[in-house]
Amino acid sequence: MAASSLLAIGVLGLVMGQSRASLDLRQMHEHVQAQFLAMDLAEQARAYRPGPLPASRLIAWRERVAEQLPRGEARVQWPGPPPTPGTLTITWRVSDRSDPGSLNYVFRP
What is the C-alpha to C-alpha distance for residues 23 and 101, in angstroms, rounded to an integer? Predict the structure, then answer.
């Protein structure tokens, strides 16, 4: 009886560890996705320098944020006169019970 109780506790510990590792991996994946999205918009802004990024490009990028991140949203603060950088803020949330993920990315065109 004691052996089966000990085994049950051990198995429960393994299951909980796997569950936590899976959640951590998912959060890390989402953060990397947000970084790639931020770098993509910064590179597009650099490509259109010195003019502004076309609105259609920004709309398409925001749609990708919403598609690639759960409940993904993005705010863009465009750079001011040099040396003022621009700032991208991307937020997402896996579920109502989870902590929101966020990324702040500073860029210069």
Answer: 13
pLDDT in tens, 71-108: 999 999 988 887 889 999 999 987 766 778 999 999 98
DSSP 74-109: EEEE---STTPPEEEEEEE-SSTTSPPEEEEEEE--
Reported confidence tier of residue 11, pLDDT bands at 50, 70, 90: low
- Residue 52's φ and ψ, nearest 5 degrees, are -75, 155
Please enumerate in sequence order all residues whose Cβ is within 8 A of that of 34, keeping only pairs 6 or more positions apart, or say none: 65, 69, 72, 90, 92, 101, 103
Judged by DSSP in three states, 48 sits in coil
